[in-house]
Amino acid sequence: MIQGNKSAARRRGASVSAAFAKGLLDLAVEKGADAKSLLQRSGIAAEALDDPDSRIPFARYIALMRAGKALATDPALAMHYGEVNIARISVIGLIGQASETMLEAFTQLNRYVKLVVDVDIGEGDRFQMRNERGGLWMVDTRQDANDFPELTESAFTQLVCGPRALGVKQIVTAVDFTHPQRSYLTEYERIFRVPIRFGAEWNAMRIDPALMMQPIAALPRYVFGVLTARGDALLAELEKAKTTRGRVERLLMPGLHKGDANIDSVAAAMGTTRQTLYRHLKAEGTTFERVLDDLRHRLALDYLQGRRVSVNQTAYLVGFSDPAAFSRAFKRWTGVNPRAARRHATQKD
Hints:
This protein has 17 helices and eight strands. The chain is of the alpha+beta class.
């Protein structure tokens, strides 16, 4: 029980991209599961999947995977998800396709894998190349992997099937899994096509080093720079979201329009107390009230400068029931009233 509690504690800050969760949900629905039931069982709100770059708690992704396996009657759902083209789900797939060689693609995988799945890996990269045990092995260093072996299944399937779909000769010559043999062994054999060992000491794939320089370049090279710039921006946002302030903002945004944001409800959603949340924010040099005010300010500017909604609609979206109160707040933030700011944005075009 103690070990389980430690594992749960490590996973508490873990997350996956909303696009990754949405892709799994879509596959499960395609295989016969009911979308509403999947969301209900996983505790994921439908609107949480609208922004592909937002984050979903890892625990809810686990619940979604297990609900999908049950409702779609597909015990190998994780492996079937690994067969889906990752470029449809994340920028990391496109970066891999724009890489010059398999070696560069693996390097970029380590750099950006957190954009898809951010879990505890201990020290160093998640996927590490090690020359030992009679060969070159790519080792997945994810902690407590047997608590959720489905993630190992989907990751290794993607690492084999992704290059294969691009016409790259298979570079994997053996696969080791720490979890016990599964009931759907035939799916393992169909997908990996190499010797498989269960109950091993690590989760790893043996790589043919002579094939690491196989060319890919499925996309024009200039695209690589564009995609990695976007990946770097998303990584910066992800790191920011790991702060207490970032987590508070992420919890505030979906319900900001209701106008009832308060520290007690946010603390409860974070699984902590009002006093503890107050202390953590104070340690970061801020307060709940300041985080809320700054978030409203930033979103109001975004709405008005983008000219997507009216001033009154903006007031509602950022949590003001009274447009006059919003105008006063906006003038305090910027020195001008919101209508003038919106007119100025329109004139710039």
